[in-house]
Amino acid sequence: MRNLVFDILFVASAALILYVYAGYPLLLLLLARRRPPPAADSAAPPKVTLLVSAYNERGVIAQKLRNALALDYPAGQLEIVVVSDCSDDGTDELVREFAPQGVRLVRQAERLGKSAGLNLGVSQATGDILIFSDANAIYEPDALRQLVRHFHDARVGYVVGNARYTESAGQPSAESEGLYWKLETWLKEKESAFGSVVGGDGAIYAIRRELFTPLRSTDINDFLNPLQIIARGYRGVYEPQAICYEEAGDSFEKEFRRKVRIISRSLNAIRRAPAVLLPWVQPRHWLALLSHKVLRWFVPVFLILALLAPLGHWSSPLLRVAFFLQIACYVLALAGWAIEKRGNAPRLFYLPYYFCLVNLAALFGICKLFSGSLSPTWQTIRQEPAAAQDAAVPLAKRGS
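Predicted structure:
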């Protein structure tokens, strides 16, 4: 009986891991149906507010604002607002130089975090559509038009754009993040065709202004707001032609810290919008949320159980082989960590390393959630961003 328990524990854990990374994508491939493009509308484009969140972004903010001012959208219908979380590196002074061109600075009196800043920015926005963006996200000229055209459908509550990561030469974290992001992009396309894309993207996503719900300081806006919109009966759309480019972190460690923060606050968002966990509210979104996000975040728990289960039934040759295969994977990951410290690691090493890093970040995120240590503020993870942008190459356009 004891051996059977460990057999079931291993099989269940391994099955859930396989479902997350292989079963769910295959299921989406079968279930997703191509939706027709939104119908053309001859009405004037809606008034849009582009909200740019910034904390100490002196290196990229001028480039961001020049990009925003050059977007292909009627000037009278585009409002550009920079929300500064009490920046102290000269970011605000640079933003004020763009005031004659209509750019507005909204500065928090004290550093309260991105969510508090967005509450302040939205309260002063005049657009019917709110588009949220990061300070280093560079948009293609037609990105706004591609986003807002979906709002002609009254059932659409939010639209997510196509954020592509860029890398600088010799930057393995960016390449790994790019490979990871290609899978994410494919899942978003299929989820959008199946029902609703899960979550937004802080670099480029839009919502109807009336659907914005004020945030707590520890909320993550690009995940909680879409969940709240889904709970109100709307759907979310992924628009692959609304393209922007954003630089990945310049090291695995910085990506790790970013992922811990995002996962912990995203789990908290589900706790803040529990209705989305009820399958009868929006069944298709529920399936995508559970499979794409919740189960994936708990993969490190399944990995631990799959590693420990063979120890409880060591007499099983199959479980012994499974145990040693897992150990081999972790040895490759450790080698990738060691090699990456000295430079570029070969793909054989950095892919296991990145896989383990992502799941370790998820485990830390779970621990942060249950320990209640959710930080409302963030640090910029880029180094010398302006130079990096010049040297960057779009990962989505490279062969993998």
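Summary: Residues 383-400 have pLDDT under 50 and may be disordered.
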